[in-house]
Design brief:
With 240 residues, the chain is an alpha/beta fold. It has one domain: Alpha/Beta hydrolase fold, catalytic domain (Rossmann fold). The longest helix is centred in the middle third of the chain and has 19 residues.
Length: 240
């Protein structure tokens, strides 16, 4: 694995022809969730079973997560989350408030990730190969937001345990964005990002002609075995 700064972000690169994302194979960029270290999803490079030449990139979020963990073990954040307000909304089943919420740092995170992808394009030649963008939890939400705002060509999106946010803006963007292949998974007992919000996002994909594969599973906030199997099959199709 190779760790280096690419544009505005530090990133971990693996697989490809040399284990350091070498070669000219397809590229999968995966974004970790809130409070996780930048290496949190690196194990997925092997678990997703993509063909040998596939290059995996795991960028590290730019902010330290405000969860009270001291260095050097602090997690990272794409934007800060008010966990108390989130928990109150979940306990009150206030789905509309959660779906409409626009995180204060969302635009900044989107701009940062787009700059990172521009720099990665120079290094790995993204315009010449299939590119899949994906993530877990907060990383999945940023994935969807960037895809809806960007004209960049994506071979597909991987959304593990994400949710709909910024709903008014996203619904407008759906009208302007050409449909993309999507893989989406979510636990029915997720206590952090409620299952009904993931279902709502899936319905939006379907009603707008997006090719959305949906893997709900019995479990909480995580990536279940069923989700991994589904994601492997999805990558096998979109990275042909």
């Amino acid at each position: 694995m190779l760790t280096q700064t690419i544009g505005p972000l530090r990133a971990h690169l693996t697989a490809g022809n040399d284990g350091n994302a070498g070669g000219d194979g397809p590229v999968v960029v995966l974004l970790h969730g809130f409070g996780a270290p930048g290496t949190d999803l690196v194990g997925l490079a092997e678990q997703l079973g993509a063909r040998q030449s596939t290059r995996f990139v795991f960028p590290e979020a730019p902010e330290v997560a405000d969860v009270g963990t001291p260095p050097p073990h602090e997690g990272r954040a794409w934007w800060q989350i008010d966990m108390l307000n989130l928990q109150l909304a979940v306990m009150g089943r206030n789905w509309d408030a959660l779906a409409e919420h626009v995180p204060e740092g969302l635009v900044r995170a989107r701009t940062t990730l787009e700059a990172f992808l521009d720099a990665l394009d120079v290094q790995l030649g993204l315009a010449e190969v299939p590119l899949v963008l994906g993530g877990f939890s907060q990383g999945a939400m940023l994935t969807c937001d960037v895809a809806l705002h960007s004209a960049r060509r994506f071979a597909g999106l991987l959304l593990f345990s994400g949710s709909i946010i910024a709903r008014a803006d996203w619904l407008r963007r759906f009208e302007e964005r050409s449909p993309l292949p999507v893989f989406q998974s979510h636990g029915r007992q997720d206590p952090i990002l409620p299952f009904p919000l993931a279902e709502q996002l899936h319905r939006e994909f379907g009603s707008r002609g997006w090719q959305a594969r949906w893997v709900p599973f019995d479990g909480g906030h995580g990536i279940a075995a069923d989700a991994l199997r589904g994601a492997r099959a999805f990558l096998g199709d979109v990275l042909r």
